[in-house]
Design goal:
Layout (H helix, E strand, L loop, with lengths): L1 H14 L6 H7 L5 E6 L4 E9 L3 E7 L4 E7 L3 E5 L4 H26 L3
Antiparallel strand pairs: 1-2, 1-5, 2-3, 3-4
């Protein structure tokens, strides 16, 4: 029984699709989206997605000295993602925890006659 269960779980894990290819993900993102493109060389390019074609992505980059566009060939793109905002996520979690605690404590205090 355990061997069958293990085999089923293993087949399910192998059948799951891998992560969406970077170029397909880029084509679904809207123009002007902030992105982080990781290249096959290990370099990261941060900027706004300007254009996506099957051959390349165009990212508007900015430094303190200049604003420019960088065309990155599809073969150079290892991954593409939107940046996360950890501070926002942490504060949202704390706010949710506060609301849950408040929803539990108010009825408890009212029931206890406080």
């Amino acid at each position: 029984m355990i061997i069958r269960l293990t085999a089923i779980l293993l087949m399910t894990a192998l059948a799951m699709p891998a992560g969406e290819p970077a170029m397909a993900k880029a084509s679904k993102m809207g123009s002007g989206s902030v992105v982080i493109v990781r290249l096959t060389s290990g370099e990261e390019v941060r900027g706004r997605l300007m254009d996506v074609t099957p051959e390349a992505v165009t990212v508007m980059t900015a430094t303190a000295a200049e604003v420019g566009e960088r065309v990155i060939a599809a073969g150079e793109v290892k991954s593409l993602r939107a940046p996360t905002n950890r501070t926002r996520d942490i504060l949202a979690g704390l706010g949710g925890a506060y609301l849950i605690l408040y929803a539990i404590m108010v009825p408890l205090v009212l029931v206890m006659g406080g």
